[in-house]
User: Which sequence fits this backbone?
DNA sequence: ACGGTTTTTTACAAGATCGGGACGGTTTTT
DNA sequence: AAAAACCGTCCCGATCTTGTAAAAAACCGT
């Protein structure tokens, strides 16, 4: 998850950065609006946390520019406290608005809400969207088929533990499915080809398991 | 659009009601948490604006109850002003949090944002006017029909995720619609003809999805 | 090192799914 | 009233997915 923080106060960036990195986010930083946009165009940003008052290009302009190009989430920060400003912020397309000074935990909560972290699962270079039924590898949709996705889903729900072919047939294909156990092998193989060999481990005579740490 | 307002101060309800009705919303009101839930169960509510401090059942509880049952949006109102409270509010599942006293216009903006109204969405060479019910391609109105627009709207509200035909029938045609699933295909085809083939992607055996980046 | 067993790989045919064309019925516009 | 637009359904050919079988490779205890 890449988060861009744009603020002209180095101290502010330092604080926010520290909190977000503790939560496992990857942080990119900018000191003014121009730099913010340059970074935005050069990297895949999931969320931009932008201060309103910045040199060169202000936060509102950055927000509008980002929103014109993409669906990247934007959170506006501001030292101002007028209701009027909040209106302008929201109308410029910002997804969220937080007033300075703020409790950093609130920023985290709001950021996570914007990023819909609850439906996304990260596993090494993989990202699984449980709602969207998609699997990404290095941000690229691997185009998993129906069975492949449900296989992956069941592995994730039982990650780390060894699952027998029978259990997989029962849960992915349905308990009333009648077919060869070896069919599972083929689908494991197809899935492996898409997500990388290392992620699903074979346990001879027992079944397969999804490994937490791949490498 | 049905909005439920729950607050124990009649004056508060009166103000909010007035503003929202001016915007064309249909308002239902409750004086305490118990009444709020009763109304919620009896009517299709799009958004619940709930005061934290209420007799019998408080706002947090109402929020949790609503979220347990549905995906109805909840906006919490509060006279308190602690950051701590905002955290509790968001963690209880509330979608938005507004402190009293507030500028009614902000409440409107936030409500509309939650309801995904009044928004212009850009998607490659497309522009979708959620409010005006129009879709433009290269600034040209593509003259989408009623069903086509609502199909598009639902895709946008769930962009990037794979949506089954059944889900589309349920949400675009209505959960009580009885008809062929393949009808969806035909409308997808007609929509594609107007917006370009690339935007809506087919996922064999799963459904369709609206892609963020059309390359 | 060997032979039996289990897993991986390859190949292919059956089956399911989808896109597009066409059509008739209904509603809206002219 | 006629014409146009819109909607839902059906069908067919093209395409993708899936299950199975069979060959190749890997594994394991002796």
Assistant:
């Amino acid at each position: 998850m890449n988060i861009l923080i744009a603020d002209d106060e180095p101290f502010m960036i330092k604080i926010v950065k520290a909190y977000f990195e503790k939560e496992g986010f990857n942080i990119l930083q900018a000191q003014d609006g121009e730099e913010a946009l340059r970074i935005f165009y050069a990297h895949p940003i999931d969320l931009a946390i932008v201060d309103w008052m910045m040199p060169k290009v202000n936060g509102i302009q950055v927000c509008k520019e980002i929103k014109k190009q993409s669906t990247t989430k934007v959170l506006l920060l501001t030292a101002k406290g007028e209701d009027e400003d909040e209106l302008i912020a929201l109308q410029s397309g910002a997804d969220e608005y937080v007033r300075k000074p703020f409790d950093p935990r609130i920023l985290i909560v709001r950021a996570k809400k914007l990023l819909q972290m609850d439906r996304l699962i990260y596993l090494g270079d993989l990202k699984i969207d449980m709602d969207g039924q998609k699997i990404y590898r290095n941000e690229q949709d691997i185009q998993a088929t129906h069975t492949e996705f449900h296989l992956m889903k069941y592995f994730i729900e039982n990650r780390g533990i060894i699952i027998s072919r029978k259990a997989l047939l029962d849960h992915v294909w349905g308990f009333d499915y009648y077919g060869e156990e070896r069919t599972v092998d083929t689908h494991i193989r197809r899935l492996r080809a898409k997500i990388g060999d290392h992620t699903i481990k074979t346990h001879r005579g027992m079944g397969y398991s999804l490994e937490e740490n791949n490498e």
Notes: Residues 120-210 of chain B form a domain with the Arc Repressor Mutant, subunit A fold (CATH 1.10.10.10). Residues 10-22 of chain B form the longest helix (13 residues).
